[in-house]
Amino acid sequence: MKTIAIMNNKGGVGKTVTAANLADILARDCGKTVVLCDCDGQMNLTRFFLPGFDPEVCPTLADVFTGDAEPVWTENLTPVFPGLDLLPGSPGLYDLDLRAVRDGAGDPYSLKHFCNAAASDGKTDFFICDCPPGYTLASVAALLAADEVVVPMLLDGFSFTGMLDIQAQLEGLRASVRHVGNRADIAGVLLTQWHNSPVVQEGERLVRNMGMPVFRTVIRRTDKVPESTFDRTPIVRYSPTSAAARDYRAWVREYLGEVL
């Protein structure tokens, strides 16, 4: 099983759209078994796939952190469609962030143990974490659990800062948790909402010369992407021939082609 964290400290860069489309392509096009984990208290990923989801009556990631999850890991998942299950987020993640600061509530290694249980069963091919911006309990837990980190990025100055922050966070985690074998590396920076303009071209040149891995494929800007979020359908299904849909499929082939 491969565990992937989708993360950038800057919001609005396409993390949730990337997580949703990566999972959809792997499950529907490639026949893989995928678990999506919504690490954000806003529940955007959860509400995208499960608009009627009630975190008060169904297991969520917050229950994993507090130790209130169901004993069998699969009983905490909510099916989306065959091949794709979701470990939902909830507003309880916000409360856990406050409690973690105040009294140490929540175990950041819980998600790693959850992923280990999924890997031991041998029934899951990919475990994908959609992370919130910032250094939250859930984002730290996702980094501890992940094999690799994908960093969606807009070509603006704010996103540059977020990308560098993630690099520093990974280095800090490696230094502090060597005893648990943390091995997450940045798989690559994914340039999103790309369009042909001088500032974008110059930003891309700068990123590709920073010494970090950057995917060759870029995700082009199109109004079909925000339309797909209103429709709550991954762009690769909502508008299969759109530029962004074609780009996401090309990116998955570039990133995971050897293991598909």
Features:
45% helix; alpha/beta
State the end-to-end distance.
Answer: 12 Å
Count of extended strands: 7
State the helix count: 11
Q: How can the largest sheet be summarized?
A: 7 strands, mixed
Can you describe what's shown?
By secondary structure, this protein is an alpha/beta fold. It is 45% helix and 14% strand. The protein is built from 11 helices and 7 strands. It has helices at 15-29, 44-49, 61-66, 92-103, 110-121, 137-145, 157-176, 198-208, 224-231, 235-238, 243-256, and strands at 2-6, 34-38, 78-81, 84-87, 126-130, 148-153, 185-191. Strands 3-4-2-5-1-6-7 form a 7-stranded mixed beta sheet, with helices on both faces. α1 packs across α11. The longest helix is centred in the middle third of the chain and has 20 residues, at 157-176. It is globular.
